[in-house]
Give the backbone structure.
Amino acid sequence: MGKFIPLSVPNLSGNEMQYVAKAVESEWVSTAGGFVDEFERNMAAYLNVEAAAACQSGTAGLHLALKLAGTGAGDEVLVPTLTFIAAVNPVTYVGAEPVFMDCDDTLNMDLDKLETFCKEECLLSEEGLVNTKTKRIIRAIVVVHVFGNMIDMEKLMDIASAYRLKVVEDATEALGTYCTSGRFSGKFAGTIGDFGVFSFNGNKIMTTGGGGMLVARDPALVRKARYLGGQAKDDGLNYIHHEIGYNYRMTNLQAALGVAQLEQLELFIAIKTRNYELYRERIEQLAGLSMFPFNASTRPNYWFYSLVIDNSQFPLSRDELLKELANHNIQTRPVWGLIHQQRPYQNNQSYHIKKAVYYADRLLNIPCSTNLETADVETVVAVLSKLQTGQKEVQR
């Protein structure tokens, strides 16, 4: 069996050890320390926003964003079903209920269905957008830029404006992706809606081991997020708190990693782009397989590479292909289980979900780490070519 080729692992080839050692030597290893402030400043500068608030995770950032967006008990939030469940769970943290929307052929939320739902299934009142089925107020939309593929933010923001909805961009997979045309040209994913949230989990394009970052159109809300995420301290000396806060601050050790990783982000994106194009060039020659495309009006970060399987031409199902690639020491994974089908959300409203079911059965994510070598890509493609002609690995 050949070299193990993982799906997505960190690349710690820069100043990570140096900066973490500096944090340890300073003895500031918890949620205070110079690297936290530096990471926030550097992220804000990279994204061209006024301020950013580091937090414990992308999930924590989404929770804070929804709270600051004014969502609460008895409200509803429009969410995608094709995403990781962490994008939806924070809706329940604030006491609201998710309403599930389908994806389109970009894997992102189907904005045509979203608009139709708002127009035909809701009523715009003085209190806000009322879901006529549930009689609840819909306060916000959570959109996920799936695999780093940016949604059509112009259309989304027009819909949100028409129906008075707050927009929370889950950009946890899309750090570095930006628009290249239209009225948001040059704007990064996560910086157009009311709130944007990023994640630095171990499999993301850059990592702090865990952790996240929140930005907002209103810088005052970023400061409020930092306040709430730091246990809402109004008097740090006497421990006076005027609001209920959360233990959501990032540690100085994590931030030290983040500062070093951010220095390499554009290099990481260049590597991701190169490897994606190499995969695409090779795989388009294999009948029944194709690389899922990214939106042409953006500079994607190419975070995850999705293989689309057409079983009218390819002999293996998605699950069979996953197993055979594992037999060759190649790690892959299917897309997430659709959230509207998960046990906690089966009783929630979902709206005409069709394409999400189609893609959930036909996508397989293949190795995409930023330390993936050309030879690794060629190995994956060679195995796919063998499998396309019906040559399976013999188990010994």
About this structure: The chain has two domains: 16-263, 265-388. The CA atoms of residues 57 and 211 lie 4 Å apart.
